[in-house]
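#dry-run=false #mode=assembly
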Amino acid sequence: MKKEFPGWLSVAMLLAALAMCSYGALTGEAEAVMAKAVKICMECIGLG
Amino acid sequence: MVKHVRKTVQAMWGLITNAYVKGFMPGGGIYKGPLKHFCVPGMNCYSCPGALGACPIGALQSTLSARHRGFPFYVAGFLMAVGLFVGRFICGWLCLFGLLQELLYRIPTPKLKIPDRLDRGLRYLKYAVLAVLVIGLPLFYRDEYGAGEPFFCKYICPVGTLEGGIPLVLLNDVLRPTLGWLFQWKFLLLVLCVLSSVFIYRPFCKYICPLGAFYALFSKVSIVRMRVDTHKCTDCGACARMCPMNVDPAKHPNSPECIRCGECMRVCPMKALSFTVTGRGAKAECTAADNKEKENII
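#status=ok
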């Protein structure tokens, strides 16, 4: 019988991931994502 | 019922996240508003004329390949949060490219059965794509100015070609003369992907998709999980026969290959399969095989 992964640990990991995401947003990473996403990505569309 | 609900959700999500209609007008360009700060959870090229959000795989590569690199807290945290919450549920319910492959598979032709050993081996390919093309090369392979490249987007991603490349080239005259070998290569990959989808169920998701590989890492630990009620399961195998991703849900309810489409729940005659939140209401995750073992002991 396999023991199931504890639910509380999943929740704790989720909170840690959300904290990481928030930290990244506060340190300007969201702006960097935005800066890339508003320009046509030539690599993505296969133009070089 | 689940099937139709899922198709509707997939289509609606695709429309909502690609709702910038102006982008599809001739010379329209792409959306440049504040929603592009946020990643969508599924594969969706941010150069698609209609895209309202950023592609998480593209965003991850651009953060990793930036000149002043650092740990990508924002994108990695977002991807981990989604994976930890629902795992590959995103693949089954909120991915437009997944929907496209599913629709192609409905074309009535003889279907290709990949031998089990080859299938199992090929499934590891997506983890290699994630590790090498999405993380490794953008992080470590630098030009003379210290900048990296989004290798997966540039050389592989058929989603970018389909959602970004083709519409933009069709809508913008100025882009057409710039087409070269790279576009032809990516177009060839897209054609291969489309053709193989007619004969194999979701080949891109099974073998190539780095986003699916990332979410798969969290399948066993996500908050929303699949549960088998071992008291109801008779080990009839109906779920395994129905599973389009070739998983045996009764034995491996939270397999990394499961996209949580819910088909197994629909066909289970005993209603032994269900989604659960953090294992609530679930007895220990034992399989039907374990159940039989118990019966034998008794």
